[in-house]
Backbone:
């Protein structure tokens, strides 16, 4: 079975950013995304709200060029003023054409 190597963009953010980041993803090259609620602790301890669903995990599988655009946009527009972390991972997917915007 043939697989395509793409990038998984993962963004952990405050719920208030969901609609903005979804729009950003679409505009910057994602054909789709997944949003899940979560909670946890980081370098600063527990999230201030400390309730289920206090953070969102937004993920999109995209072409490498789109991943660079997305991660750069997120860093430049959200890191300074919001509780946001983001990272890229290499992934191998079946039907890779479904993840690349036309």
Residues:
């Amino acid at each position: 079975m043939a697989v395509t190597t793409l990038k998984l963009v993962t963004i952990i953010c405050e719920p208030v950013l969901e609609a903005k980041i979804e729009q950003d993803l679409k505009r910057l090259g994602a054909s789709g995304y997944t949003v899940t609620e979560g909670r946890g602790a980081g370098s600063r301890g527990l999230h201030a709200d400390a309730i289920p669903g206090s953070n969102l995990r937004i993920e999109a599988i995209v072409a490498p060029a789109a991943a660079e655009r997305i991660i750069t946009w997120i860093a430049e527009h959200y890191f300074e003023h919001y509780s946001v972390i983001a990272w890229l991972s290499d992934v191998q997917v079946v039907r890779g054409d479904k993840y690349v915007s036309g």
Q: What stands out?
A: Residues 4-42+53-93 form a domain with the Alpha-Beta Plaits fold (CATH 3.30.70.120). The mean pLDDT is 89. Residues 64-77 form the longest helix (14 residues). The radius of gyration is 14 Å.
